[in-house]
Amino acid sequence: MKPYLLSPVRRLSTHAVLRASLSPGDLLPPDLQINTVLPLANTAPPYNKHVIISTGHSNWCSQIVAETGPNLAKDLKGLLGLGGEFHNELHKVLITNSAFRSLDTGVTDCRTTSAYLFPSFQHVQGIPMSKTGVRAFAREFLVPGNDSTETPSSDTQNISSKQEDIPDSITKDASSSISSLYKVSSVSQPIVLICGHMERDKRCGIYGPILLEEFNKHLPPTANPTATLVSHIGGHRFAGNVIIYIPPDFLPTLGRFAPSSADMVNKEKHSTPHKLAGSGIWYGRVEPESVEQIVNETILGGRIVGKHFRGGIDKHGRSLLLP
Known about the structure:
By secondary structure, the chain is α+β, with helices and mostly antiparallel strands. The protein is built from 9 helices and 11 strands. It has helices spanning about 5-10, 15-20, 70-80, 130-140, 170-180, 200-220, 260-265, 265-270, 290-300, and strands at about 50-55, 95-100, 110-120, 120-130, 185, 190-195, 225-230, 240-245, 280-285, 310-315, 320. It has a 6-stranded mixed sheet. Strands 2-1-3-4-5 form a 5-stranded mixed sheet, covered by helices on one side. The longest helix is centred in the middle third of the chain and has 17 residues, at about 200-220. It is globular and about 45 Å long.
């Protein structure tokens, strides 16, 4: 595999950059600069569902569908994209690879993987990488009307509330036998996704690892990682690009991500409702010095940082836009 042109940047720590009085922007090639002129507001793409696939690495090809070996992103795009069996113009699904490590242990005869689903805030393990398995997963979790946690969208600005009929091409026996292998759990901690797709665009490739280190420094400690690098999400010219998904029942109690049992008993006493609970917030032009503010204001405080806001999605799959 051809090495990255700027591969040493991936190993450059945030602290080394700051000690040298550099910003990630100082490391960019002259022909790839950050756009600081165009407004950020409403530049996030409209979508209804976001699939975050656990790949365990961030060394993706420029096009993730070109990855060799079992490729869930490619298979899902084939089913949900234009001309695909489950394609629906009124229900847009984003498909993104992440560096999260799959926790699957091989409970089936074929390879399996895991994925996060938003804004349903589900973590699905045991997704078979066979053709039948991927079709069953897509139909059960990504086709509108089949996911019991999904609320139909009523956003008149971006998304029609009417949905097209989807053909039932998977037999009940096959679907149920595969779906019985899934392990589905609720996502209870905020998830921070940072574009770090070096092979697609060096701007996010440079910003991503530096921002990841900075988020890990400021995020409250949890049992599971809550920040990771992801593949292309659009808007490299606005790097660093960050998406934050905040669970619908998230309690930033006493500055911790995981409330104690006593906190849960005294929920009303120790916590107020999170104003962004159930939402996905897209930020752009995020610099290392912006991270602490974003953690405090958005993740813990439930407030939008306006200068970085690109858009987002609410718990019903409706776009969040500035007027």
